[in-house]
Specification:
The chain is mainly α. It has one domain. The protein contains six helices and no strands. The longest helix is centred in the middle third of the chain and has 33 residues.
Length: 162
């Protein structure tokens, strides 16, 4: 079971990773003259997104709902967040690779092609949705009802067995 102290620590780590992600999304263009630093920030950002997904999955695996075998209930509840996380990670990696590829040798040259601008917009829209769904999922996974036996869980288990 996820204890209050542990949940607070996990929540703090998750929010720190989300804050760093938001920081990189907001200010990475200011570092276009230093491509190595920008590359390192992009790599750390992508690893942070991956860590956030791993943390959410570990929190899901820790629930009583998962342990009694109602994985479909969890997947139904968190499908949007899992899909958005994968989409956001994919869009971020694609955007980072494309920007660094265009900007590596000539960092002060205008590199914003039409395709890159479209990818940028989709990546930022996915980022906003990712932040919202991730925070909502994190708060929902803090619900103590997910970590203990309860009547609604017994009803869900009975429906799943039929």
């Amino acid at each position: 079971m996820l204890q209050t102290n542990n949940y607070s620590l996990v929540l703090l780590i998750q929010l720190a990773l989300l804050t760093f992600d938001l920081f990189v999304n907001s200010f990475s263009e200011l570092l276009r003259s230093a491509p190595v630093i920008q590359l390192v920030l992009f790599i750390i950002q992508d690893i942070g997104i991956l860590f956030n997904v791993i943390i959410i999955l570990l929190m899901m695996f820790n629930t009583y709902v998962f342990q009694v075998g109602l994985v479909s209930l969890l997947l139904e509840r968190f499908r949007a967040m899992l899909i958005l996380s994968a989409l956001y990670l994919t869009l971020s990696i694609c955007f980072h690779c494309w920007v660094m590829n265009l900007r590596w040798m000539e960092s002060n040259r205008f590199v914003w092609t039409d395709g890159l601008q479209v990818l940028f917009v989709f990546q930022r829209i996915a980022a906003v949705l990712y932040y919202y769904f991730y925070k909502r999922t994190t708060e929902y996974l803090g619900d103590p009802r997910l970590y203990e036996d309860s009547p609604w869980l017994r009803d869900a288990f009975a429906r799943a067995r039929q």
